[in-house]
Write a structure and sequence with these properties.
This protein has about 120 residues and is an alpha/beta fold. The protein is built from two helices and eight strands. A hairpin with an 8-residue loop joins β2 and β3.
């Protein structure tokens, strides 16, 4: 049986990725080992893994993850308080498909969309 999913996204710089996810989004590094060229971050029940891709051109990166939440308004406000840049086309709003959503881009142009059913 399937029990979880842990997306793997590209990163150019492990330190930048770690800092963005911890300081802006409230994630913590997962695991006790520091793997060369690999990073695992988690928040609540969510894990995102990252693999090193030093030559990644962020303008050509189409990595995307959709993350569901049960408290989108507070999470959105926390990101605003942390001075996290919200995607220009991804402000918090109710979508026609019954989700309240917003989006951010990480340092490597991976799109993170957060959504809650309404």
């Amino acid at each position: 049986m399937l029990t979880a999913i842990h997306p793997k996204l590209p990163m150019r710089d492990k330190k930048d990725t770690r800092n963005f996810y911890s300081k802006n989004l409230g994630f913590q590094e997962f695991g006790s080992a520091d793997f060369d060229g690999y990073l695992m971050m988690q928040k609540d029940g969510i894990q995102i893994h990252f693999f090193e891709f030093k030559t990644l051109d962020p303008k050509e990166n189409y990595g995307q993850v959709y993350i569901r939440t049960d408290d989108i308004d507070n999470f959105y406000q926390t990101l605003l308080d942390n001075k996290t840049s919200i995607h220009p086309n991804g402000q918090l709003e109710i979508k026609p498909w019954g989700q309240k959503e917003f989006s951010v881009l990480d340092p490597d142009n991976n799109l993170l969309t957060f959504g809650q059913s309404i």
